[in-house]
Amino acid sequence: MRIDVITIFPEYLSPLELSLIGRARREGLVDLQVHDLRSWTHDRHRTVDDTPLGGGAGMVMKPEPWAEAFAGVRAQGQESLGADVEPLIVFPNPAGSPFTQATAQEWSQCEWIIFACGRYEGIDERVYQHLADIGCEVALASLGDYVLNGGEVAVLAITEAVVRLIPGVVGNAESLVEESHSDGLLEYPLYTRPASWTDPQGILREAPPILLSGDHAKIAAWRREQSLQRTGERRPDLLE
Description:
Elements: E1 2-7, H1 19-26, E2 31-36, E3 49-50, E4 60-61, H2 63-81, E5 88-98, H3 101-107, E6 112-116, H4 126-133, E7 137-142, H5 152-163, H6 175-178, E8 196-198, E9 204-206, H7 216-234, H8 236-239
Parallel strand pairs: 1-2, 1-6, 5-6, 5-7
Antiparallel strand pairs: 3-4, 8-9
Helix pairs in contact: 3-5
């Protein structure tokens, strides 16, 4: 998979060099490139924003540098992947569709994703219209019903959620099957050794005896029951 990220803060994406994502990059499982939007500006101040038409607070990102950035990154990617390969262009945006585990599964099958990190009040609406008109697949993705200072944090989260589903990125692929949201439910409670633990308050806390029984069928049934119970308590909307 190829991933391109366009941002005015390239250093914000440095965590993608760490942990499993960093290893996936080093092993060639994902080709991740970060681009500075200001590289496509032409004034001495490298301006990427201006005041909103019609008035209002804040600043809006200008269409010109974004259009040039997409053209440049698209050309680079097609030189690498082939002229017939088109990217999915993702804009993290609180007005977008909710990003879910199902979205991550779908996008993990993509050959190429371009992330566009907006800032300030957002990006000029005509940029989305332009991309649609030239045949690009565009998606606006929201992490939740709240607003961040920019798209970089969302790109970190989305990239990790997507890339970890690529075969070979996570060492034990079975762990992906049983985690939260993999089957639409929250994951069951987890325990490890010691089975008996005295916490700092002096309270003895025992792991559920069923987990020590060795009966895998009963353990699976217990975990399923716990998963349903936890989902009902914390996310009843998922049960619906």
